[in-house]
Design a protein that fits this description.
The structure holds 2 protein chains of 2 kinds.
Chain A (H helix, E strand, L loop, with lengths): L11 E9 L6 E10 L4 E5 L6 H9 L6 E6 L2 E2 L11 E3 L11 H11 L4 H14 L4 H4 L8 H13 L6 E4 L7 H18 L3 E5 L2 H7 L2 E6 L2 E6 L1 H6 L4 H7 L3 E9 L2 E4 L4 E2 L15 E4 L5 E2 L8 E12 L4 E8 L2 E7 L12 E6 L5 E2 L25
Parallel strand pairs in A: 3-8, 3-9, 6-7, 7-8
Antiparallel strand pairs in A: 1-2, 1-4, 4-5, 9-10, 11-12, 11-14, 12-13, 14-20, 15-19, 16-17, 16-19, 17-18
Helix pairs in contact in A: 2-3, 2-5, 5-6
Chain B lengths: L1 H37 L2 E2 L11 E2 L6 H8 L1 H33 L3 H12 L6 H12 L4 H8 L15 H25 L5 H7 L4 H12 L1 H16 L3 H6 L7 H11 L3 H35 L1
Antiparallel strand pairs in B: 1-2
Helix pairs in contact in B: 1-13, 3-7, 3-10, 7-10, 8-9, 10-13, 12-13
The chains are: A alpha+beta, B mainly alpha.
């Protein structure tokens, strides 16, 4: 849980950070340790109310922690006001100054640093050029710009001061999906070129996985797990994380039956001898991602094959998502390549192959204090966000 | 939607109708009457007999000619303007910091503070003014404290009641709640993320205020100034009760002309001139802003 960075020269280090909104109220940030390396892109991911925005405010200097330390580039800033931290922040609402032109907005940070007018406007205009605002658009006020342009101005305003750390609070929340995906790419490229360490806060797991070098999953004021997106997706520490990060089939082990595992719901997982599931005991939880399920001819290679009726099907273009009822009340979510099941229809019975070697066994079950449904972040392809 | 469009076309008119009717009956009609009265010949029989207030059926601009050339009326007009400016300045000077303080309170405390600001408005106007009279008088608690603490070198009380200070204090006291309300509303319209954003970009609290909060509340300040000024220009109760014969405002003089000199046309003409002054001031404040707005859209 505690992410131990090798050196003290991280762009940002948090040590045992705690904060509660007033006495008697639960901790919004309950002991967070975190290190973000120079130049790294870190995403803080969690459902609303998990404490991620509070953490961002603590780092920005808008709240003072009850305990713990905040270090920027090895230098302690825990009690410093925001203006003495040198951070670049992009707010969810962008917080552009409505009475100033785009260029004056971007130049604001330089103005506060005493950069002469001509120089600061030249630098602001150069950066706005780079994010793609025309000279005419640069002279406009924020409300005369589109949402995407406002977002770019906010980003340029945060970057122009060459911050030690770039903080982004749900920067894509107010944009439509298509624009969001394009700006995501632009942000990543800009960030890499500027080489600035970045902390992005989001509740959107897709965004976090797409952007981050490293993701921290937060819940109840704690960091549940920190790691590379692939590691988090494939080897989550808790069932809750697995479900929060994407579509997940979860099984609880009822008992061992020789070389097989009897799962809750009556399903049998065959031939685990050669896999990592060998030592699994009753009560353990297993993860099977929908794209690991085998259908059609590919199912024949698997020792475990579960037969069931297709109860739901969604065509997603690149692949197809199926819900297959493999036992009474047990639905298996399956992601199939388009050619794998030609002519399959809802109601049809199919066989799903379960590759035992590709199941992930959680090192521990969800702790009892987790009571938030994880679907908050994952988008359900069968019916919008659930 | 299209079916609704026709109905909704008339809806604003319908909704405004009761208020428009009220305004028409009790503002426009009396106003027209006022203008007409100001154009009658005055006098007739003097005294209190019916028909002594003006001569019906006559038409003259004489009252306006007299007033515009008269030193006495000029002095009253200038004093009214000065008093209004003084009161407006005082209201903004006291009201803006107070509004800022209220704006920065937590939400529940904010409602409480606004209630406290409005509390004096629940009192009857005359009761309030008589209370002020007690407070500001030579033997009142303020002067008692002033003399008791030995702050007065000559042993004389401060010239408050029946002096300019009393009038200004009284008037400002009456207007301040409205100025504060307008200013708190204006501050509330500013995106609360702007100041944190400015701070994050390196602005100290003072610079963030000067560069962000102040410019964005200028509209509210203008509106508060306009409301205070218009109100103060019509000052009657406070100069009448808290002032001396030196503190004659237009409204006080209108009352004198009408009731003491029984010269309705002259009183009416003074009232019309007061109205014209106010309209000119309102135009002075609002019109340039509209031009500014248009210029902004073009650029």
């Amino acid at each position: 849980m505690a992410h131990m960075a090798p050196m003290n020269r991280d762009a940002l280090r948090l040590e045992a950070l705690r904060y509660a909104y007033g006495p008697g109220r639960g901790a919004a940030v309950a002991g967070v340790d975190l290190g973000i390396a120079e130049g790294a892109f870190f995403c803080l991911l969690g459902p609303s109310g998990c404490g991620k925005t509070t953490l961002l405010r603590l780092i920005g200097g808008y709240l003072e922690p009850d305990a713990g330390r905040i270090l920027l580039g090895g230098e302690e800033v825990t009690r410093r006001p925001p203006e003495a931290r040198g951070l670049g922040m992009v707010f969810q609402s962008y917080a552009l100054f409505p009475h100033l032109s785009a260029v004056a907005n971007v130049a604001f940070g330089l103005e506060m640093r005493g950069v002469p007018r001509v120089e600061r406007e030249r630098r602001a205009a150069a950066l706005l050029d780079r994010v793609g605002l025309s000279p005419d658009e640069q002279r406009r006020r924020p409300r005369e710009l589109s949402g995407g342009q406002q977002q770019r101005v906010a980003l340029a305003r945060a970057l122009v001061i060459e911050p030690r750390l770039l903080l982004l609070d749900e920067p894509f929340a107010n944009l439509d999906r298509r624009l969001r995906e394009r700006l995501r790419g632009e942000l990543k490229e800009l960030q890499r070129r500027a080489g600035v360490a970045t902390l992005l806060v989001t509740h959107d797991q897709e965004e976090a996985l797409a952007l981050a070098d490293e993701v921290g999953v937060m819940l109840g004021g704690r960091l549940l797990q920190v790691g590379r997106p692939e590691d988090l997706y494939e080897r989550p520490r808790l069932p809750w994380i697995a479900r929060f990060l994407g579509e997940a089939n979860l099984f609880e082990v009822e008992r061992r039956e020789g070389a097989a595992l009897r799962l809750r719901g009556g399903l049998l997982l065959q031939d685990i001898a050669e896999t990592e599931l060998v030592g699994v005991e009753a009560g353990a939880w297993l993860l099977l991602r929908p794209e690991r399920c085998r259908v059609g001819t590919a199912a024949h290679d698997c020792a475990s094959r579960w037969a069931g009726r297709i109860v739901n099907m969604a065509f997603l273009g690149a692949d197809r998502l199926l819900d297959v009822e493999v036992a009474e009340g047990v639905r298996l979510r399956v992601r199939a390549r388009p050619g794998a099941l030609p002519g399959a229809t809802v109601g049809e019975r199919i066989e799903v192959g379960i590759p035992a070697a590709e199941l992930w066994r959680f090192p521990e079950p969800d702790p009892p204090w987790i009571d938030v449904p994880p679907e908050n972040g994952a988008r359900d392809a069968m019916g919008g966000t659930s | 939607m299209t079916g609704h469009a026709r109905a909704s076309h008339w809806r604003p008119v319908l909704l405004a109708a009761p208020a428009l009717l009220l305004l028409g009956l009790f503002f426009v009609v009396p106003l027209a009457f006022l203008v007409r009265v100001s154009l009658y010949r005055g006098g007739g029989q003097s005294g209190f007999g019916i028909g002594g207030f003006y001569q019906p059926g006559t038409f003259t601009l004489a009252h306006y000619q007299t007033l515009l050339g008269e030193r006495y009326f000029g002095a009253v007009w200038v004093f009214t303007l000065e008093l209004a400016l003084l009161v407006t300045g005082l209201c903004l000077l006291l009201g803006y910091p107070l509004a800022l303080a209220i704006h920065h309170l937590p939400r529940c405390a904010r409602a409480f503070a606004l209630g406290a600001v409005l509390l004096p408005k629940l009192t009857n106007l005359l009761v309030m003014v008589y209370g002020l009279e007690l407070l500001l008088g030579d033997a009142g608690p303020i002067n008692a404290a002033f003399i008791g603490l030995g702050l007065s070198r000559s042993g004389e009380p401060l010239p408050l009641l029946h002096h300019l200070a009393g009038v200004v204090i009284g008037k400002a006291y009456l207007i301040l709640p409205y100025a504060v309300l307008v200013l708190v509303a204006a501050l509330g319209r500013i995106d609360p993320a702007l100041v944190p954003a400015a701070r994050g970009l390196g602005a100290t609290p003072l610079r963030a205020f000067l560069r962000i909060t102040l410019p964005l509340s200028l509209g509210g300040l203008g509106l508060a100034a306009l409301i205070s000024f218009i109100w103060a220009m019509g000052a009657f109760v406070s100069p009448y009760l808290l002032g001396s014969p030196d503190e004659i405002t237009l409204a006080v003089d209108v009352q004198r002309q009408v009731f003491e000199n029984v010269n309705w046309p002259r009183g009416a003409a003074e009232a019309v001139l007061l109205l014209i002054t106010l309209a000119a001031c309102a135009a002075l404040v609002t019109v340039p802003r509209r031009w500014q707005g248009r210029g902004r859209r073009v650029s």
